[in-house]
């Protein structure tokens, strides 16, 4: 039986924990359909903090300033995210000195990775690098992540050195802002069905099931 082709656009930021969880739930839903779908996923940039300096900002202080999150609220949120991550096979490893970081270079690399159909692998590696391995986004660390997924490190160095995709990333982000998107993750199925946020596995299954009819 021929597989049903489906295109899924994911609007995401690599420092967004709900993007990790939402992607994990989407993958769980797809796995429940066995091999019925031929899936093409395209990742789109969305910087939650585009003006964040390169050195970053303490995560708890950042959340307190931006959202009014208390220390107690932060502890509860981290515990809850850690548990939700476990359910989709992802390890969140929060620590006191953790920083919110600028992700513009990450998104340039993600845009570049589209050329080799490697966005999924790079997104997963960046999620793991930041949330699981206490990584930062210095250029040497980003090149290490690129090498880990088998991409060309010299090309990646050139992308970062020349800001090769900086303007493209900004234009794509502008497009989503103009469409009224103010938060991520966002999942778009075949350019029509839209799910906002880290929906439950069953919700993803409900949308996917519509494309089998």
Automatic annotation (TrEMBL):
It comes from the Bacteria. The keyword Cytoplasm does not apply. Keywords: Isomerase. It holds the Pfam family DSBA. Residues 8-208 form the DSBA-like thioredoxin domain. One of its GO terms (molecular function) is isomerase activity. PANTHER family: GLUTATHIONE S-TRANSFERASE KAPPA (PTHR13887), THIOREDOXIN SUPERFAMILY PROTEIN (PTHR13887:SF41). This is 2-hydroxychromene-2-carboxylate isomerase.
């Amino acid at each position: 039986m021929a597989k049903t082709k489906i295109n899924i656009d994911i609007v995401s930021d690599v420092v967004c924990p709900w993007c990790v969880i939402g992607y994990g739930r989407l993958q769980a839903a797809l796995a429940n359909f066995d091999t019925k779908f031929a899936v093409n996923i395209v990742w789109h940039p969305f910087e939650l903090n585009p003006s964040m300096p390169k050195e970053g900002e303490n995560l708890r202080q950042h959340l307190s300033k931006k959202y009014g999150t208390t220390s107690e609220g932060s502890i509860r949120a981290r515990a809850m995210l850690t548990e939700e991550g476990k359910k989709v096979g992802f390890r969140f490893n929060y620590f006191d000195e953790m920083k919110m970081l600028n992700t513009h270079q990450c998104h340039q690399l993600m845009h570049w990775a589209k050329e080799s159909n490697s966005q999924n692998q790079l997104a997963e590696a960046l999620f793991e690098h930041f949330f699981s391995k206490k990584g930062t986004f210095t250029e040497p660390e980003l090149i290490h992540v690129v090498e880990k997924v088998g991409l060309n490190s010299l090309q990646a160095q050139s992308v970062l050195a020349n800001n090769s995709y900086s303007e493209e990333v900004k234009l794509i982000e502008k497009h989503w802002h103009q469409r009224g998107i103010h938060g991520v993750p966002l999942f778009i199925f075949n350019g029509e069905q839209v799910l906002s946020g880290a929906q439950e596995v069953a919700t993803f299954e409900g949308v996917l099931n519509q494309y089998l009819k």
